[in-house]
Amino acid sequence: MKIALFLILLLSHLSLLGQYSFSGYVSKVNEGNAIYLSLVEDYRKTSRVYLEQIISKTKVDSLGFFNFTGDNLLKDNRIYRIHLDGCSNNSEARHFLGSCPYSKSVLFIANNGDTIAFPTSFEDQALCTITSTNSKSSLLLEIEALKEEMIFDFVDYRSETNRKLNLEKWFTTLQKFGEDSNEPLVELLIYGFLSDKSNETYSHYLGDVVSNDYYDQVLERLNTAYPNTDFTQQFEAEVTVDRQLANFKDSTNWNWKWAVLLLLVLSLGLNLYLLITRKSAARAKTNDLLQKLTPQEQKIVQQILMDKSNKEIASELFVSHSTIKTHINNLYKKLEVSSRQEIVSIFNKK
Question: Is residue 243 located within the same domain as residue 132?
């Protein structure tokens, strides 16, 4: 009882400090293997690990324990992945790309103040149980459980009638689960699954996206919780285009089809223009920020972007360690940031 109380107090304390701690256990046979923490901003890139998503790396110790800690994550909830790399030491195995039978991963929701544990479950299974200070963290595991139930429903009877009934049932079930979760990121992940062109759900989705105002409600919730984010804008653009595509497929009038096709092209062109405009504005803002810095501060920014430590930067620029600290503190004030990671985020925007 005392240990449990201590753990609760510890989790609460770490959460209040604004630091994250993601730790857990995997099988001891993974000792020395790399394990990665990734930020998954694109809901179309959740099926496997992408190198550009990785933000931190550590190794499994002799007890099978791993731990990620810091204060450089986003303050708002995001989707993260922990991925145990069991293939990097196997020259015949495919590393990251494709599948690897020796690797495991888990998707979860978290923010910079969360403390999350991944204990092993029955039969020493790893990365399939979550204990967290964030009530939303384990929701993505629940989605996976629902998807497994869905698969069983489709396997039982393979008739076309059963398929249509099950599609209607599971669209409703999954969308309701997402809405009840009160977390738009959950709805976004469900949307990504149901609207995936490689899934059997896609044809039903094209009809649903036209007739169901659920997607408009999701967009409202995304704009409220995560305004001006890339994934919110991506969702809006995809739903708009898919509705136009669905209407185009259903139309029996060729003139109307050409009109819809023209609207589709215009919509795609507009979305591309808006994307280029936003990126140009972001680059201009970055250049303006860079101009506010002294030549020495600009050099330090370049060193930070190369992932150099303070000691390495001091050696490179032939100044003292304390001088570098002073420059970096001035950088924080000028750029209105509180960490090196935020500096990297500002100047690495594409």
Answer: no
